[in-house]
Design a protein that fits this description.
single chain, Immunoglobulin-like, 5-stranded mixed sheet, 1 helix, 32% strand
Length: 297
Amino acid sequence: MNSNLRSRINDASGFTLVQTIIILAVIAIVSAFAIVSFSSTKATLRLQSSVRILAGYLEKARLDAIKRHGNSTVVFTSASTYDVTMDFSGSGTASTRTFPFESDVAIITTPLPTVNFNWRGRTSACTLTFAVQNSRGEQSWVDVSDAGDVTVNSNVDVLPSATYATVTTNSGVDSTAVVSGSTVHNNTADCTNDGSGEAGPPISGGGAGCTDTADPSAISIRKNGGSSTQITVTATNTGTVNVSAPINLRVTPTSQTVTGGGSVHFSITSLNNTRGTFAVNFNSPCTTLTVLLTVTN
C-alpha cells in the first residue's frame, strides 16, 4: 500500500472518530434536556391530577349530602392526605375513606381545610379557598363557595361586572321604592371571612424571658401585587430575624438584624393569582412567630 493511500485511510478514520464524539455529545445534551422536560411535565401532571381528583370528591360529597339528606365531609388529615365521608356503596350509610395526593403534591395553606356539606349541599363558610403546590413550585387553588360550588383556579368571589341605573317613579310605583346607583357589585364585600382561617390574637414567643411578638398576627392582602402589608417583629434579644414563606409571597427583606427590645419591619406582597391563607414564619432570636396571611381577590 502506497503512502498516499495509507494517509487517506488514516484521515478518513480520524474524521469518523471526531464525528462519533460530536454525535455522542449532541445525543447526551438532547437527552439531558428531554429528561428535565419529562420530569417537569410529570410534576405538572401530578399536580393537575391531584387537584382534579380532589375536586371530583368534593362534588361527589356535595351530591351525596343532598341525596341522603344528611352531612358529607372532606377533611384533610395531613398536607397530602384527606378523608372523605359519604355513602360510597349506595346503601344509604356513610363511611370514611382516605385518599392521598400524588407524590410531591401538598396543601400549602393553613389550617388544613375541612369542608362540611349539609343536607342542602351548602357549606357554613362564605368561600373556602386553599392552595396546592408541587415540588417545582407550580400552584393551583380550589374554591368551595357557600352554595357548595367547586371551582379550580377561578375567582368565585367576584361576580361578572353588572351596573344598575336609577329606577324612576311613575304611575303605580311607590315613590319610596326607588333604587339609585351605578355601582359594580363585588361579592367579596359580602364575605368577611373566606373560611380558610380566622385571625387569632397577637402571637408571642415562648421560653424563659422570651416575649417576641409579630404584629399583626393575621391580615389580608390582594392577589398578584394588588396590595401589600407590613409586619412588625419585636424581639427580646439581639440577633437576626429570618423569614420563611410560600413561594407565591414575596417578603422583603428576607432577614434583618434586631437589637434587643427593638423592632424590625417586613413587607409582604402576593406574586401571583394563588389565593388562600398561608403561614409566614419569622424566626426570631428566641422563638418562631407565625403570621396568618390571607390572599384574596
